[in-house]
Design a protein that fits this description.
With 255 residues, the protein is of the alpha/beta class. 46% of the residues lie in helices and 13% in strands.
Amino acid sequence: MANLGESVQEAKDLLLMLSGGRDSFLSACRLIEQGYRVHMVTYDNGCMSNTCDVKAVAERIIMKYGSSRALFIGVRSVAANLYRLQEPYLYKTIGESSKNYPHLRPAQLPCLACHTGMYLESIAYCRVHDIPYMAEGARNSQKFFVELPEMVKRYKMLAEKNGISLILPVYHLASDWDRKLELADRGYVPKTLEPQCWIGCPLKTDLSSYEIDSLGDYYDNEMEPRLQSLIDERIKACSYEGQQGWEGHETYIEV
């Protein structure tokens, strides 16, 4: 465990996408204990309930580790990115789309667009603030496309292209019970009030290799070629706002 008394200057700054669930909760704990100063941000795609509850999770983390090691940036919208990154699919017929993506499972596309939009915003934040690390609470065992190795490697490449290292602190954690015990070991009641997303759908059945390939092809062909320009536009927007695009939103909770 890292020395939690070390100075802020010695800590390594990192941006964590905090969903409010136990995976990102535990991720924050592990990262802080590894020596990172964790900037926590939550994203709202416009179809979510109770995003305000995430602040309570952030407060629990800050109360334990101190405001010099953890801060909450707030809740930020990715609704525009959700639309942009689905647009090539939304305005075609199923027959037209199936020519290029014959096994694309439609229920997974909003998640892919939303999650990629979160990466877009996170990378822009990191570049504005010269933060070399970013993280999320993805777990391979959950089997959603955005958390499978095939998509993780794409997100790592996008981050690396912008000089940022992606860290997945709980990626190989297979047991929900182990996650619960780890939070309990840190003195927490392992319960959270995670926001509810109303466009995300249960998998029901695992994705086939053909479905994974089609979703990957959609990202490669329809999303990835646009992402760098969208990231650069977000960075310019923050600069145009007099460096207030991301400034002034950090929540420092006194302990």
